[in-house]
Amino acid sequence: MKKLFAAIAAFFKKKNVVLSGRRYGVDALGAMAQGLFCTLLVGTILNTLGSQLHIGFLTSTVVTVGADEKAVAYTIGGLASAMVGPAMAVSIGYALAAPPMVLFSLIPVGFATNALGGAGGPLAVYVVAVVASECGKLISKETKIDILVTPILTILVGVGLAWLIAAPIGTAARWVGQLIMLATELQPFLVGIVVSVLVGVALTLPISSAALCAAFTLTGLAGGAAVAGCCAQMVGFAVMSFRENRWGGLVSQGIGTSMLQMGNIVKNPRIWIPPTLASAITGPIATCVFKLQMNGAAVNSGMGTCGFCGQIGVYTGWVADVEAGVKAAITATDWIGLVLISFILPGLLAWAFGLVLRKLGWIKEGDLKLS
């Protein structure tokens, strides 16, 4: 039995199939968020720019799929968004170091899984793409007709698994997301704190808060709390570390990612206290005072100020609500709330808390210095 396990372990090592939390929980999940960003998020941004700035080539139909009443017209942004399933699957395969034949075979797998998974498609794509990719890697280049065997096996495993589990996974993810959003509606103060802190912490950790929000379709008030938490981490770290990192650090963390501080957090976990406390304050302010909602793409809920995607998502939600007649107009209060929650309060609160911790000696000079 030991020899059998040893042989299996050696074969897995040879095929670069690494069963680890980092490989699946960090690398694959982070890559999935990049696939989401490059398709769904970018597509939404292009559509919003086209409609709001009246840019003709962004609002024009590029291609129409189908005929008669079933025809679907796509703009450039619409085409980008429609490719979200394949993009997520390929991104995951890339993170798992899948060989080319496996990687390209994940395109139909991602498309089928996302379609079958419905609103919870991202989580279904994550699970199915990981399994299909690893199975494809195991068979890759093991036969003389690899050009046939590898893509056929990868597609059959992926689409077959999607047919079995994508819909249940999608439904479960949607229920979890709806439960969180309902809880936020019923208890906006307490749940606003919890969502803001947890999603903000996820953003700074080497996992993807954007992918998590997309997987659970976290929108509405809960999405607004998530935006608040992410902004608190990014802007908070950027402002409180300004003396060490100056303008470069302000930009790289403020509109890049607070994940850059993970090495310093490992050395001194106390530096994480100020932005986390800031998120615990801005979350309920977002939900209770300004009623900040993310009604754009759910992936934006976990983006914070990264490329200002969180703010773009909130704005696209406003626009959609106005067009649907749900919201009368975008008001000055809306803009004030968004600016306060996204930039001003996170910076002020994290700076103030950071100053107290520096006085206490919990944060020392250089603790926040980026290498």
The average pLDDT is 91
Order of helix and strand elements from N to C terminus: HHHEEHHHHHHHHHHHHH
Q: Radius of gyration, Cα only, in angstroms?
A: 22 Å
Strand order of the largest sheet: 1-2
Structural class: mainly alpha
**Largest sheet report:** 2 strands, antiparallel
Spatial separation of the terminal alpha carbons? 48 Å
Concise synopsis of the structure shown:
The protein has 371 residues and is mainly α. Helices cover 74% and strands 2% of the residues.
Characterization of this structure:
The chain is mainly alpha-helical and 371 residues long. It folds into two domains: 2-175, no CATH class; 187-360, no CATH class. 74% of the residues lie in helices and 2% in strands. It is built from 16 helices and two strands. The chain has helices at 2-14, 21-53, 56-59, 76-82, 84-95, 100-117, 121-139, 146-186, 188-204, 209-215, 220-240, 242-254, 262-267, 273-289, 309-324, 332-360; strands at 63-65, 72-74. A two-stranded antiparallel ribbon has the order 1-2. β1 (63-65) and β2 form a beta hairpin. α2 (21-53) runs antiparallel to α4, α8 packs across α11 (220-240) and α14 (273-289) packs antiparallel against α16. The radius of gyration is 22 Å and the shape is globular.
